[in-house]
Write a structure and sequence with these properties.
Layout: H1 4-50, H2 56-83, H3 86-91, H4 93-108, E1 112-115, H5 125-146, E2 151-158, E3 161-168, H6 185-195, E4 199-204, E5 210-217
Parallel strand pairs: 1-2
Antiparallel strand pairs: 2-3, 3-5, 4-5
Helix pairs in contact: 1-2, 1-6, 4-5, 5-6
The chain binds adenosine-5'-triphosphate and magnesium ion.
Magnesium ion binds near residues 137 and 141.
Amino acid sequence: MTTGKDDKALRRRLARRLIVVQEEQRLRWSRELHDDLGQILASIALELHIVRADSHEMDTRLARAAMLIDQLSARVHDAAWSLRPADLDRLGLRASVEDLASVLCGQLGIPCEMDLEALSSPLPAEIALTLYRIAQEALTNIGKHAAPSRVSVTAHVQDDRLRLAIEDDGSGFDGTAEPGPGHLGLAGMKERLALVGGKLSIETAGGKGTTLYADVPLTG
Ligand SMILES: Nc1ncnc2c1ncn2[C@@H]1O[C@H](COP(=O)(O)OP(=O)(O)OP(=O)(O)O)[C@@H](O)[C@H]1O
Ligand SMILES: [Mg+2]
């Protein structure tokens, strides 16, 4: 017979395993989309751009097909990039998080305060990926739920821990209520942090905005 505690521990283990598997799968899909599909589309586009038929009508159709392939290539490229945080490899954690925040604040047309110097130092790859995914989900939540007039994203090191804080002055919510089954973001953030020995804390209340803290250990 299993107790409620056993069930909870089992659910947590499964949720963690799911996150690891999802991340591995995303990487695989991203490579396949980018390398296989991207390469095939690029060569079809090349053929279509070169080939010239002897009738005007055929030329027009080929030009249109070439344009559609170009659009499809751009979509595949974007999809491959959104599946894996390619920015993280290319730009590093600090610039990637700055980009995520600037894009969101640009879309909302609100000011964004950032102090992310602490993310400039090299971090273990899983910690960097975890913090990137936390920032991504927290900012997505702000865009979806908060309707804020300002956002702040900061990171500081204290003792042997790094704290990423993402704050908005929007609607806030009841942080004590368990999110329903269709809401996976907050639970996913908790599990991701637990995987690297970190912790998520949230300060929020209806009408009072939300501050989310992601704390990660910097040693062992
Ligand atoms: N910054 C925020 N401001 C206001 N409400 C928030 C904020 N972040 C989360 N919430 C509330 O907490 C709930 C749970 O968030 P969670 O990220 O788990 O799920 P979701 O965003 O609704 O769906 P999912 O992340 O699975 O796509 C949200 O539905 C929303 O009501
Ligand atoms: Mg969410």
